[in-house]
Write a structure and sequence with these properties.
heterodimer; A: 110 residues; mainly beta; three-stranded antiparallel sheet; 0% helix; globular; B: 118 residues; four-stranded antiparallel sheet; 54% strand
């Protein structure tokens, strides 16, 4: 199972919005509404920020939103803040009864 | 409070074995999966294996199938990952995470470091 494709890096200034894409195939992202997103700070465990394509866990900021179209999912962070600077990973359930992650996207807040 | 605590990480020779433990508390395993996810130094996340607390089914990534084995000790609320035939590419931080099926992982432990090197 190949990793989902994410941009290596994205950047934005405080107050701006950014979008991170996550491209899979018709066997994972395109087949199920089971895409999730994780935020990870250096040296820390990942934190779930989006599940089942569009849902935010309790306590996650409304500035985080997500969507999916075909084989590509997207995470949008609005009103960027300094502490949004982190690595972001997408993941998807697959038709092989497994889970696949994206390669990760480093967000830099300028 | 949901908690997952990993232990057992160590430095091991190539070809060697190691057993990792994940102790869970604060929830009923019968409604969730317990999963292992690893992260090589400076690299991304990789799903390794999962245990279904609902059915007892075990799932493995192709990269570890035949070398890694999951087992569960219900009395100790612990999941074990027996790792045999270790390779340099198995080096990394191993996280234990609670899963809602294989859909998403909502709680994570802090990880345990496995280093495979001569």
């Amino acid at each position: 199972q190949s990793a989902l494709t994410q941009p290596v890096s994205v950047s934005g200034s405080p107050g701006q919005s950014i979008t991170v894409s996550c491209t899979g195939t018709s066997s994972d992202v395109g087949a199920y509404n089971y895409v999730s997103w994780y935020q990870q700070y250096p040296g820390k465990a990942p934190k779930l920020i989006i599940y089942d394509v569009i849902n935010r866990p309790s306590g996650v900021s409304h500035r985080f939103s997500a969507s999916k179209s075909g084989n590509t999912a997207s995470l949008t962070i609005s009103w960027l803040q300094a502490d949004d600077e982190a690595e972001y990973y997408c993941s998807s359930y697959t038709s092989s009864s497994s889970l696949v992650f994206g390669g990760g996207t480093k967000l830099t807040v300028l | 409070e949901v908690q997952l605590v990993e232990s057992g990480g160590d430095l091991v020779l190539p070809g060697g074995s190691l057993r990792l433990s994940c102790a869970d508390s604060g929830f009923s395993i019968s409604s969730y999966y317990i999963n292992w996810v690893r992260q090589a130094p400076g690299k991304g996340l990789e799903w390794v294996a999962s245990f279904s607390g609902i059915s007892g089914t075990l799932y493995y990534a192709d990269s570890v199938k035949g070398r890694f084995t999951l087992s569960r000790d219900s009395g100790r609320n612990s999941l074990f990952l027996q790792m045999n035939g270790l390779r340099a590419e198995d080096t990394g931080v191993y996280y234990c995470a609670r899963g809602v099926g294989l859909r998403y992982f909502d709680f994570w432990g802090q990880g345990t470091l496995v280093t495979v090197s001569s």
